[in-house]
Amino acid sequence: MKYSALSLALNALNGHKSWRPVWREPEPRERYNVVICGGGGHGLAAAYYLAREHGVTNVAVLEKGWIGSGNAGRNTTIIRSNYLLHESNPFYEWSMKLWEGLERELNFNTMVSQRGVINLYHGDVQRDVFARRGNAMRLNGIDAELLDTAQVRAMLPWLDFENARFPIRGGLLQHRGGTARHDAVVWGYARGADSRGVDIIQNCEVQGIRTHGGRVTGVETSRGFIGAGKVALSLAGSTSLVASTAGLRLPIESHVLQAFVTEGVKPLLDTVVTFGAGHMYISQSDKGGLVFGGDIDGFNSYAQRGGLPIVEDVCEAAMALMPMLGRVRVLRMWGGIADMSMDGSPIIDRTPIDGLLLNAGWCYGGFKAIPAAGWCLAHLIARDAPHPVATGYRLDRFATGKLVDERGAGAQPNLH
Fold this sequence. Notes:
Blueprint: H1 5-13, E1 31-37, H2 41-54, E2 59-62, E3 78-79, H3 89-100, H4 102-106, E4 117-121, H5 124-139, E5 145-148, H6 149-155, E6 170-174, E7 178-179, H7 182-195, E8 199-201, E9 206-212, E10 215-221, E11 224-233, H8 239-244, E12 252-264, E13 272-275, E14 280-284, E15 289-300, H9 308-321, E16 330-341, E17 347-350, E18 356-360, H10 370-383, H11 397-400
Parallel strand pairs: 1-2, 1-11, 2-8, 4-13, 11-18
Antiparallel strand pairs: 3-7, 4-6, 5-6, 9-10, 10-11, 12-15, 12-16, 13-14, 14-15, 17-18
């Protein structure tokens, strides 16, 4: 069913009795051409683009919970392409271009809001670093604008510009960055994939990978064995656990990444702001709550909850940035299990096991990468070759030393 003003009006006349389920609830078949492990944004996007771009529809997406129960529903919803290195810029810019046409593409309101992302700087050295990043962005055709103090003050007058420790000297602005609604994104991709024949199997946990003669043959699940010609892992924090059942030891670690939301307040932030003197970022949701996050907890964990030291660190940064936040109550907090690679950049590549493919190590960048990650994983599955914008995200770079150290923000941020 196509969503439109006309379909809304027609269904209103009959008491909304004609709406169909957004996707089917099929029973798993014995075998598929492709099984994608993980029903988050990346896995669903890959299934959608496999069907739409490559005509591969005998596909199953396996999700251990319900759609949106994992990291897809546990993030701060920021989208941007303000990266520095030549391996990252084309990839995230391609993702941004897909974001810009996503609602029309999926016929679903994913609430993409290009309200802008501004990274604040607090000194001359940091200004020079951001100027370099902005120049790299513009050389790759990505919008970037370096702002001084007066320009930032005109946009965000309520920030603490004269903070004694962290005075705000300016910022790097990407106008096309912003936010999207996390739940709507996975629902839209699930609906699009399902409409093209993909089976979305919820409450089906992948418990192991079965191989024979160096080739993948399928996956063991909580609902029995499912055979597959190819298996793609897109499991975020659970990737290393499942991969280990096939004898793979991956260069990633699982860490908790916390986020917070406050009570609703009147319109205050019409852009996304990141604090340059610490790892803290903040935006305002459509419901009025202020959504903010910070660093990983710094120790391995599979729990979807965080520790108090990071809560304190993030709140300290928030108060340094906007002292008025001290009067706002935090309603809730949550933790997502992020798979942190050793150089802070992702992996989209084949593995040593024939037919087993990997999409992992997204660190802090998983949500913003959903469209491009799905596109590139689908290309890898269908053509057995990396997409041109993802050639730097090879698995063997950790053995060859060709790291993509975008910011040293992985599990070991001491690479420099």
